[in-house]
Structure formats: C-alpha cells, structure tokens
Design brief:
mainly alpha; two-stranded antiparallel ribbon; RNA_pol_I_trans_ini_fac_RRN3; RNA polymerase I-specific transcription initiation factor RRN3; RNA polymerase I core binding
C-alpha cells in the first residue's frame, strides 16, 4: 500500500558513544494503491482488517500522489460510491482533502464526477465537501497582494477549477445553496487575517454570484457585515495617526503630486492592519460594481444596474444605515449612485421616506437624514433641481412640525424628545451653508431660499440653533446674514448666555450629564483608504462620474473651527 524509504547519512563521531549517535533521517511516503480498494473498504466495514483501512487513509492524506496515481484512485473510487456511508466518513474526508485544484483539467473533471456521484448518493457529505472548497477560495499558496486588485493568472487558474466543480454541484443540487451560505459565513476570514485572504475570499464570493445570481443578496449581506466590522474597528483617527497624514491639505496642491502620492500609497498599502484589510476588500467590491453595471464597451447596462442597486439598498438598509458613524463602506452606495442621476434621485427618495415615516425608530430616521444631507453636499452629480427639491421637502416638514408645537401651552425642548426635528433642521442648515454658492448663483435660486422662511425656523420656540453643532450654526449664520435670509446671531448670543447643562437621574439614582448638542456624523466626509481611492480613480476615467476621489481627498479638510470643506466641482477634476 505504501513504501517508506529511509536514508541515513553521516558517520558517528569517535568522541560519542553509540547510544548518542545522531542520525539525519529523511522519510518519504510514496503513494501506491492497494490491489483491491473495494476489498480494503469491505474488510473494514466487516471488521476483518482495520489496519489496512487506516494505512490507506494515512497514505491518501500524507502521500506524494502523482497525477497518474490520482487518476487511478479516482477511477477506482467511483466503483465504491455505494459503500461510502457514514461509516467510511474518514476515508471520504481524506479524499475531499486531496490536492486536485493544481492538477490538469482531466483530473479536475474526474474529481468533479466523483464529487457529484458521492453527493447524489450520500447528500449528508454536502457540507463537508463545501467546507473543503473554502480554503481554496482563501488562498492557493500565494501570499502577495494583487496589484490594482487584479488577480494573477496562476491564482485564477486554480480558482476556476474550484468554481467549475462548485458550479455543477449547485446546478445538480439546488438545496446546496443554503448550505453554501452557512459555510461561507463560517469560513469568512477573521478581521486580523492577512489582507490577501480577504481579497481572495471576497473575489471568489462575488465570482459565485455570476453563476448563482440568486445568492447575490445573501452574499452581499455577508460581505457588507464584514466590511462594516472592519470599518468600525479602524476608526479614522487611528488610521490617520498611523498614516501620519495631515487632515487639512493646502489648496494649491498640484494634481501630479497628488497622483504620485496616491500611486505610492497603492504600492505600500495602509499601515493600520484592519484598515488595510478594509481597503483591499473594498477594492474588490468597487471593481465588481463597475464590471457588473457596464458591458465590455464600458456602456451602462441599465437593467443590470437597477437590479444591483436594489440589492445594495436592501443591504444598506439592513447593515449600514443602522450602524453609527462608519467612514468608508457607504461610499459603495455613493459610487453606484454616480452611474446615473436617476439612481441618486431614487436613493434620496428612499432616505427621505425613512426620515418622515413615524414607524421607523428615531435613531434610524436621524441616520437617514444625515446620509441625505451629506450626499447632497458631497456629490457633484446631484444637480441643482434635485438639491432644491430636497431642501423644499425638508423645509416643508420643519414648518409643519413647528406648527404642530405652536398650539401647545408648554414645549419640552429636550433633544431626546425632538431629536428627529433637530437633526432635520441641522441638516437643512448644513446643506444651505455648504452649497450656498449654487443656491445664490441666480436670482431665481435666491428667491427660492427667501421663500423657505428660515427666520421662523431659527426663532421658533424649539430653538434648533441651540442644539446644532457650533461649526454648522456659525457657517449658516454667516451665509444667511450675507444674503439677508435670516439673522441668527442674536439667537446664538442668547443661547451662549443661557446655556445650561442637562442632567438626568435614572431609577437607580444614578446621575448623568448629557451634552445639549446633537450626536452628529457626516457619512461622506473624506475617504482615506489609499487603494480604494486609487482603484476608484482609475475606474472613474471610463465612466461619467465627476468626482475624482484622490483630488477630493487632497482638496478637502475635515470640518474644523468655523470652516467647511469646499465642494469639489466637475471642472476641478
């Protein structure tokens, strides 16, 4: 069954006794099939010869099997499929662990035939068979990260062998799809595993959706959950601290210098290990969005884009929207909305529906309006008509809310009670201050701003300026005074004089002091992952997306002491 050869080299020293003789031994197991494989299996089942069965398993698992021997083994195994019930579990697992993906196409086809016959006769091995495929999808012996997210030919060759087997398996056994989802969740690389494992696994998960489209939504949910976990464990402050990158950039940075720095970052990667895993994983998703929504000539396939958009919005609603202050994952929605204005408008309508729906939890409504405001400010593909329509909807809702409170004798201005109202007000102030250049560019647009009755908003009894972030309130006050839309400084001065800390006492008599300011984040603030930026930058030149992310990162600065980030226009790209 197996032949073990041992070679002894070297002579013993005359200074040492024979009892301490040192040997350099080298053992090698050569694979050799038994005369009758079926006889060995039957003898084990009948408990006549267990040792031969065990030696067979060890030889298959540890032996050096050549292509000819492997082909012969798979051929003989086909005749024993009916015997391979749960009693021969260890023998089946040894066969499933064979290194077949690196072999020629004939062996791949033979293994595929064996696997299909095995699972058709004994479907309880389905989970084990799928689990043995997962390590192949993580890595195939190469540890270097891909250049620009493009897999190497050698790895694609091996991946394609595994996909060929999996494709036929899922076609013959549709119920295996449910098992596959469970196995993928179980074997998804851990957060701190190598970045190459992450990019290989996500690449192969997205590859599966090409021949099993019905799994795309579930796989996208799995991928986004992992991306959100990576995003949460890589706070922007930590990443910037390790990268030693200034948050504010000079406005006269040359584009050539920016591109050179971006290329250098692409080669080196992120220093923060989890941020690097997030970066390299998002490259694969960016590339998938691009390839899935466009044909070979780079033209947008509208039907495919709509289907993918609906899947992404479902994933966004279930995973991203309910997660507070993620920094990068949401840019995947930002990117696909850039493919066509209709998608951006639909996404804005989706967010606004969440905001005004009383059945949605308040925290989700707040998150939705923050996404809406940040998208209106950052996306250069949002035209002026869409901007005005969104502002008008927010203004109408705010005035209705104020009118509903004016009839009350007493108003509780607690931030927790009116959190959605205050967040909508702050978002409206933020959008007007950020994009005021577009909104006052013509007399017609200036008249539109005057019709919003901003004075009533800032002087109402709920006093929204009191809870707004100071930087938002100050910039909004400056814009409204310049164009005589409202005078906010008297309200700001009054709030500064009469501001009082808010203290709460729970049932356990514990006293907590809370801030009177809204807990706010801006979802589409600068994107700092170097590979994703560069990948998207390369993609952008083949699409109509007018937002150049490397320049976006370089021209923009984080909100700080009374300044807003300038909006990047298409002409600056």
């Amino acid at each position: 069954m197996s032949v073990i050869t041992t070679s002894v080299s070297g002579l013993s020293s005359i200074l040492k006794s024979p009892g301490f003789r040192k040997r350099n031994t080298e053992q090698r197991v050569r694979f050799r099939l038994p005369e009758s494989l079926k006889t060995v299996l039957l003898d084990f089942i009948n408990r006549r010869n267990i040792k031969a069965y065990e030696e067979l398993i060890y030889t298959i698992r540890d032996g050096d099997i050549q292509d000819s021997n492997l082909m012969q083994l798979l051929t003989e195994v086909q005749e024993c499929i009916s015997l391979m019930d749960k009693e021969l579990k260890h023998f089946v697992e040894a066969l499933l662990m064979l290194d077949w993906v690196h072999r020629n196409s004939e062996i791949v086809k033979k293994f595929q035939e064996f696997l299909l016959n095995l699972l058709s006769a004994h479907n309880y091995y389905t989970k084990s068979a799928l689990e043995k495929l997962m390590p192949i999808f993580k890595s195939v012996g190469f540890e270097e990260e891909w250049t620009n997210g493009v897999s190497t030919k050698k790895e694609v060759f091996v991946f394609d062998h595994a996909h060929a087997v999996l494709r036929v398996l899922l076609q013959v056994m549709p119920m295996a799809c449910d098992v596959l989802v469970q196995v993928v969740v179980k074997h998804f690389p851990y957060l701190r595993r190598s970045s190459h494992e992450h990019e290989c696994f996500i690449y192969n998960m997205l590859k599966i959706t090409e021949y099993q489209p019905k799994l795309r939504l579930e796989f996208l949910l799995i991928i986004f959950k992992r991306l959100v976990s990576l995003d949460v464990y890589a706070p922007k402050e930590e990443v910037l601290e390790q990268e030693e990158v200034e948050e504010c950039f000079e406005m006269d940075v040359e584009e050539a210098e920016v591109n050179e720095e971006a290329a250098q970052s692409q080669r080196v990667g992120m220093k923060h290990p989890i941020a690097n895993n997030l970066d390299i994983s998002m490259v694969q998703v960016f590339m998938y969005l691009r390839s899935e929504c466009h044909d070979g000539d780079g033209q947008l396939d509208w039907e495919r884009t709509k289907r993918l958009y609906h899947d992404l919005v479902t994933v966004f609603e279930q995973v991203v929207l309910s997660t507070h202050a993620t920094h990068h994952v949401q840019f995947l929605l930002f990117y696909i909305c850039s493919f066509k204005v209709t998608l951006a408008e639909t996404f804005l309508n989706f967010l606004w529906h969440k905001v005004v729906s009383p059945n949605v939890p308040s925290i989700v409504r707040q998150s939705a309006i923050m996404y809406m405001g940040s998208l209106l400010c950052r996306a250069s593909y949002i035209n002026i008509s869409m901007l005005k329509a969104s502002i008008s909807e927010m203004s109408t809702w705010i005035h209705k809310y104020i009118s509903s409170q004016d009839g009350l004798e007493y108003i509780n201005s607690d931030v927790r009670v009116h959190c959605v109202f205050y967040t909508v007000c702050q978002t409206l102030f933020y959008v007007i201050a950020f994009r005021h250049c577009d909104l006052v560019h013509t007399k017609k647009n200036l008249t539109f701003l005057q019709s919003l009755n901003l004075t009533k908003m800032v002087t109402c009894r709920l006093n929204p300026l009191k809870v707004c972030l100071p930087v938002v309130a100050q910039n909004f006050a400056a814009v409204t005074r310049t164009y005589q839309l409202a005078y906010c400084y008297s309200v700001l001065q009054h709030n500064a004089r009469y501001s009082m800390p808010v203290i709460h006492q729970d049932k356990g008599c514990a006293v907590t002091r809370e801030s009177t300011l809204l807990d706010t984040f801006f979802p589409f603030d600068p994107f700092i992952l170097c590979r994703s930026v560069n990948c998207s930058h390369n993609i952008l030149f083949t699409t109509n997306w007018h937002l150049n992310l490397p320049l976006f990162l370089s021209y923009c600065c984080i909100l700080s002491a009374g300044t807003f980030m300038p909006r990047l226009r298409s002409k600056e790209c």
